[in-house]
Amino acid sequence: MASAGRWCFRSIHVATDAAGAGFCSIIDAQGDITRVWFRTEGQGQATWGVIGGTGANEGATGGGTSSFVARGGDGGTWIGKSRGTTTDK
After folding, report:
1. Structural domain range at position 23
2. pTM recorded for the entire structure
3. CB of 61 within 8 A of CB of 88?
4. Cα maximum dimension of the chain
5. pLDDT score at 86
6. CB 48 within 8 A of CB 58
7. How many domains does the chain divide into?
8. 38-56 confidence digits (pLDDT tens)
């Protein structure tokens, strides 16, 4: 899925190496949304799963893992590499 934008809400405790949880709304080029939950486990690792979506992404399922590759200069953003599978309806 090629995304045009992403909006995430998270509650992460940075003092414990980014441990926490949250969700993202990934918006594709057609404006359809895929909603994803994530849980960071510290040490730069996270687990994620698809909650659902809208339009072409309604009924989507899947999940996987992510690892953090870099932290943004503002201290509140992260660049990650994700692996997993998603299935559209």
Report:
1. 3-87
2. 0.72
3. no
4. 39
5. 86
6. no
7. 1
8. 888 777 788 999 999 999 9
